[in-house]
Each structure stands twice: as structure tokens, then as C-alpha cells.
Amino acid sequence: MEPLDLLGHFWFPGQPKGGQYGRLTFDVVKGGSLDLNDDLGEFLPNGELHVAWGHSKRRILGTVDTPEGRKKVTLIDCGSGTASRWYVNALLIGDHFDSDSETCFDELILRLDCLPAWVNQDSIESDMVGPLDGIDRKEFELSLTRPPRSEAKDQEGRSVALDFRWGRVEQRLEKLELQQWPQIEIQYGQYAGLDKLSKDISSIYNFVALCVDRAPRFQSIHLYRRDRPELSLEGTPFPGTKRRVELKARFDRFSENRGRRLTPDGVFASFGDVGGIETLLSWLQLADSLGTVVGSLLTMRSQTYTENKFLNQVSAAEGLHRIAIGGSRMSPNVFRALKRHIRKTAVPRSQHDWFNELMSHANDPTLGERLNELASEMPALVPLLVGDYEPWVRLVKKARNLGTHLSETSFGGSPGDLLWLAESVFNFTRASLLLRLGVPLSTLQRLIMKPDVQFATDRCADVVGRLGGRSLP
Asked: Minimal CB count within 10 Å: which of 87, 115, 146, 210?
């Protein structure tokens, strides 16, 4: 997602006379900002200009000068530091949308920098031919064949597709650059607002991040709606077209391995490994329920303190169990009766609120029980993920308890030890999650045997061997 630095004219919806000239900038890390040459305001019914200061505005409209010409822009969720300085959460380039009800689309096209390595379908072939006619020179042949489009559709009329595009960059007499890239396309049966689109964008991002084991970068997000066609210079619509609107927002995340170029060998689970477009559609259908789980998992690849990484991985494992398996230590009816009996016979009335809060999760499975049930679904994989399982569970419980209930008692290892323990919980939970999405055990076993995963397992086994036998606090 390229940064922006553009000059233009900006105003509130329905208030072009109160507009001002200014500079619009956007960065995927810092977000957007709008600096105006004077205070931005709106005219009141009595004709008085009211300056907006210290407020938030859902929309600011404008036109900006780009290398491709003048374009309309819509700035979304704007907050003012001063009346001439605004912070912009998201922006749409290509059209004006005065309200939330107008900001709806029926098609989304998403490109991420890691998709070529994840999809791993190279469509460019080259060949060196020669020597020719006895002369010491060679001919170079280059061809491009687009891979077939794959598509899946759900019962709501939403279709998800993987398709391929290509282009070339030519410098006359010197160089020809041929490019091909995959993209994910979503078409909706009815118009979807930005909240729905943002959820789908984040869900795809999260799934790809889990598979490639790094935080991808957004290259572009383009939105379309069928009732807004492309226009000629005279304003005449071109039949059968949709006007492209580019979305820029702070979706991006930090990653510890951003500097390395991703190759197919560096991907944990490829598009084909996880089942292709059908699995991606299934993921979108489950994403709402798994959002918190995946968000916790992905902090393993973010710039976060080791202690937070570990606790988030344990939380993700517990959350996955709660959603996918659930259950309780005893029948809910039996537990409620037992709780009433204890409260009535042993707890003073003045302490009932405390008792109720204390017992609110007493019937939930323990962390050890949750890990055991997840492990029971993939017994052949567990030693490859964590090494010796029983002492691993004891050490995970110990570290979780110490991290949750802060005290002077030490975990007993170094921050590096806790990091490898967090990595093992991450790999364990990710494997369990992919298994639930339909990835076969045989495929998961092949993926887990990759050198980077086994390196992490070896480091975890060393930590567990040194610390796992110690008694719990």
C-alpha cells in the first residue's frame, strides 16, 4: 500500500463553500493526516461560518492532484487536532461518498506482497536459445500463461476467487520487465458496507499470515459497485464497467522478519496445502468466531514483549478449545445445584457477590484439560510440536500462572526460554486450528517436519528438559 503526499481542495459534505486547500498524506504505519491552509468550517442556516475545532467528522470530501490527473477523495473517521489539522483513519480514492449508507460496495480485490509465494503458481517461463547461425549470440524467449481462476461461493451469494493478472514495464531500447501477480477477489450478493469489507479484509490477512508465518504487506485494496461505472471525459458512462475506488487504511502490522524476501520454501503452509479456495471461503465463514483467537496467535510475529506473546498464545489455545470443543467439568445443572448449596450453607449473605464472582468460571475445564483435549485429536503430531508432552504441559501451566498472577516467584528461565515455550504453544495451536479447517493430518505432519518448525521444537525440548521437572508454584 503506497504512501500518499498530495495537494488538493477539501470540504465537509454539502459544504463546498467552506472548503480549504491543503495537503493530504498517508502512511500505512502512521495513518493519514490533512493539513489545511486555513480553518475548515461549515455554514450555518443564518449564513455564519462555523469553524470545526476539537471535533470528529465521519466524512471530509475533496479533490487531489495525482500523476494520473485530478481525483475525488473521501476521508473517513477524521479527528481534528486543530481546525486546520485533521487525522484520517481511512480514505477512498476515486469517488465521493457523503454518508455510511452510500459507502457500500459489491466487489473487493485484494493484493498482498506474499501471495505469489503462498500461491506458488509461476506463469512466466523463459528459455535461452542459441547460438544462432554460427554466430556467438543467443536469443531469449519469454512467455506468460495465466493459471486458471479458482472460485467458491457460499449460500449468502458471496463468492471468493483467486485470479491472476499481469503487466509490463518497458524502458525503450533498454529493458522490459514482465510481472504477474495473484489477487483475491470477493463478490457480494448485495452491497456491503466498510465494516463488513474490513472484517473480510482482516480475515484474509490473518489466514494468509498464519500460513506464511509472517505479517504480509498490503499492496492494494480496490472496491467497486455496479451502479458507479467508469466515465469518459465528458461524463458519459461506459456500459458494463465499474469505477475503481482504492481504499487506504491502517490495516498493516509490524513483523520481525519484514526484511527477508518470502519464497515458496519459506512458507509454512501453501495455498494448495490448506485446501485452496474452498478452505479460504470456509475461513471467512468462521472468522467472526475465531477472530480473537487468531488475533492472539498473530502477536507471536509482532513486536511485542515476550511475556505478552506467551500469555497471548496460551489465551489463543484456551479460546480455540472453548469455541471448538467447549464442555465443563460437571453437568451445568449439577454445578448450579452444588453452588447454591455451598452458598446457602457456608457463605455469609454479605459475601454472596464475592462468592458468585469467584465461582463464575469454576466449572470451566482447566488449562491442562483444554490442552489435553486438543492434543488428543492429533496424537501423532504432538511430539513433533512440543517434544515430551507431559512436562511441557506442566511448564506451560506454571509459566501461565506466574504471568497471570504476578508475584516475586520467578519462572526460573531466561526470556529466551519463555520465547521458545511461546513458540511451541503457537505451533501447537496453529496445527489444531488448521486441522479443524480440514487440513489432513498427513499434510500437517509434512508441514511440521519443516526445518524451522523442528528447530523451534528442539529449542522447546531443551527448555522443558531444564525447567519442566520443577514443582509448580
From this structure: 146
